[in-house]
Amino acid sequence: MSKQRILTGITPSGTPHLGNYIGAIRPAIAASSEINSQSFFFLADYHALIKNKDPELLHQSTLEIAATWLALGLDTDRVVFYRQSDIAEIAELTWLLTCQTAKGLMNRAHAYKAAVDSNRNDGEDSDFGINMGLYSYPILMTADILMFNADKVPVGRDQIQHIEMARDIAQRFNHHYGEHFKLPEVQVEEQVAVLQGLDGRKMSKSYNNTIPLFLTEKQLKKHINKIKTNLLEPGEPKDTETSTVFQIWQAFASEAQTAQMRQAFAEGIAWGEAKHQLFQLVNNELSQARERYNELLTEPAKIEMTLQKGAEKARAYAAPLIAKLRNAIGIRKLS
Ligand code: TRP
């Protein structure tokens, strides 16, 4: 039996936070060690380019995100770990797929529609500030997936529509040129926690309520102390359900530790003490990775070499497929 191919892209934008770690990075790295599957993880720098037009920022972010995944223990001997832009075949496939994609399908993409709506609300022209990268984003994502004939694509809820579009585009291509692509399936982890941020809403860069993943101990402590609580005094029982401190605790703790904290809440643990314990728990899980991360940042050549090795592995899949596709669509040598 051949292994299930799991593929997902990581957009190098901004600094990863605890929500990314709990919701995406930790489960992906855990899944990548399962023997019945083969994981493809890549830095989606072409996707980042759609928003980020600052060359230094894009470059730095790519370095940081690569260092993050490596520091957290991604095993690049098992996993195909590469940078999207190193695989020229992906850009080529994007065009082949673009020519099979209905414009009407792209009109329906949530991210694009949201941008149009926001322009209309602001009384702007509906196309204001929208580039073709944003518009065609789902086609690039489709190429990422189909290039490696992925079986499963783990993503957040906001990306489900893009996987449906990928299936749609793959079907059209198959219908016209023959069965070249598997239809990918979306995988949304139901059990994985969506972490709450400092203000109790979902932890998200756009709410400015995050706890970055690799802070110094001092900064981590400071951030955890900023988590919103209520005015209950020490000794007064506290509600676990509505507490962000408890929610983050649960995401890092064992079952036994969670039960202990539940008990402590019932017995009226002081917020200061609960936060102190939370700091220790989170810091324990991250401190070694933090050290590796800081080390890796001083050795970009080492990271680059790892990415180049990954690209070589990835191209071993991409090159033959693109050759086959070129032939199928009639782009061939004349003699
Ligand atoms: N668009 C995805 C996100 O923002 C990242 C991504 C790019 C991706 N290409 C992909 C995810 C292919 C899965 C498969 O999260």
Structure notes:
The chain has 335 residues and is mainly alpha-helical. It has 13 helices and 5 strands. The protein has helices at residues 18-31, 45-51, 55-71, 88-98, 103-107, 110-121, 132-146, 160-177, 217-225, 244-252, 255-266, 271-297, 300-329; strands at 4-10, 37-43, 80-83, 152-154, 185-187. The strands form 2 sheets. The protein has a 3-stranded parallel sheet. A two-stranded parallel ribbon has the order 4-5. The two termini are 39 Å apart. The site of tryptophan has 12 residues, from β1 and α7.
Topology, pairings included?
Layout: E1 4-10, H1 18-31, E2 37-43, H2 45-51, H3 55-71, E3 80-83, H4 88-98, H5 103-107, H6 110-121, H7 132-146, E4 152-154, H8 160-177, E5 185-187, H9 217-225, H10 244-252, H11 255-266, H12 271-297, H13 300-329
Helix pairs in contact: 2-7, 3-12, 4-7, 4-13, 7-8, 9-12, 10-12
Strand content: 5-15%
Helix content percent band:
55-70%
- The low-confidence runs, each spanning 5 or more residues with pLDDT under 50, are none
The average pLDDT value, as a whole number, equals 96
- Widest beta sheet: strand line-up: 1-2-3
SSE run: EHEHHEHHHHEHEHHHHH
